[in-house]
Fold this protein.
Amino acid sequence: MHDTFPLLSSRGFPRLRRAALTTLQVNLGYRCNQSCVHCHVNAGPNRTEEMSLATMETVLRFLRASKVATLDITGGAPELNPNFRYLVEQSQALGVKVIDRCNLTILEEPGQTDLALFLAEHRVEVTASLPCYLEDNVDRQRGKGVFEKSLQGLRRLNALGYGQESSGLTLNLVYNPQGPSLPPPQAPLAQDYRKHLGDHYGVKFNNLYTLTNMPIQRFGSLLVSKGQFDQYMNLLVDAFQPANLDGVMCRSLISVDWQGYVYDCDFNQMLGIPLHVEGRIRPKLADLIEVTLDGNSIAVFDHCFGCTAGQGSSCGGALAA
C-alpha cells in the first residue's frame, strides 16, 4: 500500500486551536467483517489490533473526570471487540450519550443477532455506513451482497423503533462518494435516500451524513495507484471554505486509538500524528485526565482540506447547508 503521508505537507492548511471538549471518540480496534475501498482505517477481517479492557477502564475514568457529554465508538467494526457491550453499559450508567459507528452487516453476523436489541435497550445512537441507496454501487464499494445484508440490518433496527418518530432511537446513515469527488449537497441527497429506501424497501432513518473521502490509507493509496492523488488534492484545496474552520470536529473532539494514544481526530490517528500536549511527545488518555485542552494547537496537514472543502465534512455530516 502506498504511503500518502509524505504527500500531505505542502499546501498550507490554516492553523487551528481547540475549543471546549464535548466528544471522546474511541477506536476499539481495526478488525472488521468488511474491507471497503474508501476505508481510511484500512480495516478488515485480518486486522488483529484490539483495545484491552484495561484501556477501556481508562476511557471510563476519563469520562468521569472530564464530564464529556458524548462517547463516539468506532473501529473497524467496534462491536467485534469482546468488551464493546461493557463499555456501552458503563458509559450509559455515567449519563454519557453513546454513538455506535456501525457498518450494518455486523448485525447479521453469527453471534451478533442480539446486537440490535442490545443497542435499542441501551438507547445507543446508531450511525451506520450506507454509501449509496443503489445496490450495485454499494456492492461495488463494499463487496458483493453487502447491500442486501445492510437492508436486513436496517429492517432489524427499524423493527425495534430506530428511525421511527417519537421512539427516541436515532438512526443516522452515512454517505461516501464512490471515487475522487466531493459529496453532493447533503439535504437533497437525504431526500433521495429517504424516498428510495422508503418506497422500495420500507426503510426509515433520521439523518443522512455526507462524508468526504480522505486521501489517506486505503483510499489514498488507490488514488496514488491510479495517478489521481494530486488531482484530488487540488479539488479539495480549490473547494476550501474558510467558514468551515469553526465547525471542524477536531476543535471539540479527541480521538483515542486501541492502545490508548490520543490524536486530534480519527484521520490523524491513522497517520500517526499525535495530539499536542506540552511536555508529552505522544500522550495517552491516562495522561490527560483532569488536563484542560482548551486553546491547544491542532496538528494540521493537507488532508484537513477534506473536512473544509465545499459544504464541509465531519463525523456529524456536512458543516454548511
Notes: The chain has one domain: 5-308. The CA atoms of residues 30 and 43 lie 5 Å apart. The longest strand covers residues 97-102. The beta strands are 16-17, 23-27, 70-74, 97-102, 125-129, 171-175, 207-210, 253-256, 262-263, 297-298.
